[in-house]
Design brief:
With 54 residues, the chain is mainly α. It is elongated and about 65 Å long. The relative contact order is 0.07.
Length: 54
């Protein structure tokens, strides 16, 4: 059997196992947040320097 074919079959097998067990679906949880809610106020001088450098 060709080595490439065997590698493809192994990859396909792992993909089927992952999809059937639901592992990718349970891996992440999403929480919607806004930057305004948790970041501090910007320093105006630093922001001006950033805009000039940009």
């Amino acid at each position: 059997m060709d080595v490439r074919l065997t590698a493809r079959m192994l990859k396909a097998g792992w993909l089927v196992i992952l999809l059937l067990t639901g592992a990718p679906a349970m891996a992440f949880e999403f929480e919607c947040v806004r930057q305004v809610d948790y970041l501090p106020e910007l320093d105006k001088d630093a922001d001006e320097l950033f805009m000039q450098a940009r």
